[in-house]
C-alpha cells in the first residue's frame, strides 16, 4: 500500500499545533505496519532541518508567472518527507493572511511534483483546508483520495470571483455543490466534495459536525456525506515516546502516581506557588478552547487552586492573563515552549480544557499519560478519550460549569485513595497510534489499489 499524506505542517520540521503532531506520528506508524509512506508539505524558511534539494525548475501547472519551484527530501523513520519550495513560503512563520493564495499555488504544485518524481500512490491523504485543492486535483487525475478534517472552523475561504483563477480547476468546479460557499471559494469544501472518503479526528466530532451547532454552515454537506457512508471519525493517537514520564528528559522521570510528587514540587518552586493544588492548561488562547471561560472563572478558582497557563493567541485573552499573573496563585507563560509544557503536564494536579468544541485534542491524552487528571467539557474527542472514572467532565459552557467541575476534582483530591486510583487508570490508558493507523490502512484498502 503506497500512501502519500499532504499537509501544511509536519513535526519535527514545522509545527504550530495538533496537525503537525499527527503528520509527525501517523505516517511513521503506517510505515512500521508495512505501508510505503510519503509526506508532502511546504518548504518553509524556518524548517528545523535542511532538506536535500532533489529538483528545481518551473511547472506550467502552477501558472501565473511560471514561478520557480524546488523540492527537498528528508528520509527518516521509514518515511520519505518531500518539501515543496515556492517564493511565497520563504517568509518567517508558517501562516499569513494571504494563505488561500499561497496554498493555492502549493495545491497546484503537488500532483505535478509527485509525477516528476515517479510517485503514484494508491491513496493520497490530504489534511485540512490547506490540502483541499490537492485532493480536488488528485480526484480529477483519477487518484483515490482521503481527506481529514482537523478543525472545520478553518475553511480556507476567499472571494470566489478573485480566487477561482488561482486554483487551476475547470469552471464547473465552482458551483454551490462544489467549491462555492456563500459567495466565497472554500478550499475545505474542495477536499470534502472531491474526496472518496472523509474522516475527522474523533467519532463524536464526526457526529457533532452534522448539526448546526458544530457544522460551521456545512452541516448539510456533512449529513449527505454521512448518509453516503463517506464520513467517519478516527480518534487521533499520541506519540507515547515523546510524551512519556518514564524517560522524559525535561522532568525528573517517574512511572507511578507516587513518583509524580517530585514533579509537582518542582513546578510549584519554578513559579513560586503556594501549597494549594495546581490546575493547569497548555492551550492556544482562543474562544474555541474556552480560555475566556477559564479567565472568567479565575476569581473562584484561585480560592482553592494555583492556576498555571501556557499559551499564546488572542491578544485580549493574552492581556487578561498578563493582568491575572500579578495574582500570587496565577502563573502565565506566553507563547509556545515545549520543554515548559512537559514540566506543566507532569507538575500539575489537574488539567483544565473547557473547550466549546474539540475535534480531538491531544492535551487531555498527554495530561493523563502524566497522571494529571483532566477537567473537560463533554464535546468531541474529549468525550471519546476521557473516561468518566478518570477525569471530570461537564456539559455547560459557563464559568460556573467549569468551577463546579473543578470543585468536584478538588474534593476528590482530598480523598487520596480515590485520586490515586484515578491517576493509576489514567497512566495505564493506551493512546498509541497503532490502533488509529490500522483503521486508516483498513480505510485505504477499502478504496482498492491503483491498477
Automatic annotation (TrEMBL):
Pathway: Glycan biosynthesis; glycogen biosynthesis
Superkingdom of the organism of origin: Bacteria
Broad EC category: transferase
Signal peptide positions on this chain: none
Enzyme Commission numbers on file: 2.4.1.21
InterPro entries assigned to the protein according to its UniProt record, in alphabetical order: GS/SS (IPR011835), Starch_synth_cat_dom (IPR013534)
Reactions mediated catalytically: [(1->4)-alpha-D-glucosyl](n) + ADP-alpha-D-glucose = [(1->4)-alpha-D-glucosyl](n+1) + ADP + H(+)
This protein's UniProt keywords: Glycogen biosynthesis, Glycosyltransferase, Transferase
Family matches, as CDD domains: GT5_Glycogen_synthase_DULL1-like
Record-listed ADP-alpha-D-glucose binding positions: 15
Pfam family name, one: Glyco_trans_1_4
SUPFAM superfamilies documented for this protein: UDP-Glycosyltransferase/glycogen phosphorylase
Residue intervals of the Starch synthase catalytic domain: 3-222
Family: Belongs to the glycosyltransferase 1 family. Bacterial/plant glycogen synthase subfamily.
Function: Synthesizes alpha-1,4-glucan chains using ADP-glucose.
Annotated protein name in UniProt: Glycogen synthase
Amino acid at each position: 500500500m503506497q500512501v502519500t499524506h499532504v499537509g501544511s505542517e509536519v513535526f519535527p520540521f514545522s509545527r504550530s499545533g495538533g496537525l503537525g503532531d499527527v503528520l509527525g506520528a501517523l505516517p511513521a506508524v503506517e510505515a512500521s505496519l508495512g505501508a510505503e509512506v510519503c509526506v508532502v508539505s511546504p518548504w518553509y524558511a524556518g524548517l528545523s532541518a535542511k532538506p536535500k534539494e532533489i529538483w528545481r525548475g518551473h511547472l506550467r501547472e502552477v501558472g501565473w508567472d511560471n514561478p520557480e519551484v524546488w523540492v527537498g527530501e528528508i528520509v527518516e523513520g521509514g518515511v520519505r518527507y518531500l518539501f515543496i519550495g515556492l517564493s511565497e513560503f520563504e517568509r518567517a512563520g508558517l501562516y499569513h493572511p494571504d494563505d488561500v493564495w499561497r496554498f493555492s499555488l502549493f495545491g497546484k504544485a503537488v500532483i505535478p511534483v509527485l509525477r516528476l518524481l515517479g510517485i503514484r500512490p494508491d491513496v493520497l491523504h490530504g489534511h485540512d483546508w490547506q490540502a483541499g485543492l490537492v485532493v480536488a486535483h488528485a480526484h480529477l487525475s483519477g487518484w483515490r483520495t482521503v481527506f481529514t478534517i482537523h478543525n472545520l472552523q478553518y475553511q480556507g475561504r476567499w472571494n470566489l470571483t478573485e480566487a477561482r483563477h488561482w486554483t487551476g480547476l475547470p469552471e464547473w468546479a465552482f458551483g454551490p455543490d462544489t467549491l462555492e460557499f456563500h459567495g466565497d471559494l472554500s478550499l475545505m469544501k474542495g477536499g470534502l466534495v472531491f474526496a472518496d472518503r472523509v474522516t475527522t479526528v474523533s467519532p463524536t466530532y464526526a457526529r457533532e459536525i452534522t448539526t448546526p451547532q458544530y457544522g460551521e454552515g456545512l452541516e448539510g454537506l456533512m449529513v449527505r456525506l454521512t448518509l453516503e457512508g463517506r464520513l467517519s471519525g478516527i480518534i487521533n493517537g499520541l506519540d507515547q515516546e515523546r510524551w512519556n514520564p518514564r524517560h522524559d528528559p525535561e522532568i525528573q522521570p517517574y512511572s507511578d502516581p507516587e513518583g509524580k510528587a517530585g514533579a509537582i514540587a518542582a513546578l510549584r518552586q519554578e513559579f513560586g506557588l503556594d501549597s494549594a493544588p495546581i490546575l493547569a492548561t497548555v492551550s492556544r488562547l482562543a474562544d474555541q478552547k474556552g480560555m475566556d471561560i477559564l479567565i472568567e472563572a479565575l476569581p473562584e478558582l484561585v480560592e482553592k487552586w494555583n492556576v498555571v497557563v501556557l499559551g499564546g493567541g488572542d491578544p485580549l485573552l493574552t492581556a487578561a492573563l498578563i493582568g491575572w499573573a500579578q495574582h500570587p496563585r496565577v502563573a502565565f507563560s506566553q507563547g509556545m515552549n515545549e520543554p515548559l509544557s512537559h514540566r506543566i503536564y507532569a507538575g500539575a494536579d489537574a488539567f483544565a480544557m473547557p473547550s466549546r468544541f474539540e475535534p480531538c485534542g491531544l492535551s487531555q491524552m498527554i495530561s493523563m499519560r502524566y497522571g494529571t487528571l483532566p477537567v473537560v467539557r463533554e464535546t468531541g474527542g474529549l468525550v471519546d478519550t476521557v473516561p468518566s472514572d478518570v477525569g471530570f467532565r461537564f456539559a455547560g459552557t459557563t464559568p460556573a460549569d467549569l468551577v463546579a467541575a473543578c470543585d468536584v476534582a478538588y474534593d476528590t483530591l482530598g480523598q487520596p485513595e480515590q485520586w490515586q486510583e484515578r491517576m493509576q487508570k489514567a497512566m495505564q490508558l493506551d493512546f498509541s497510534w497503532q490502533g488509529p493507523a490500522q483503521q486508516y490502512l483498513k480505510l485505504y484498502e477499502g478504496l482498492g489499489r491503483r491498477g
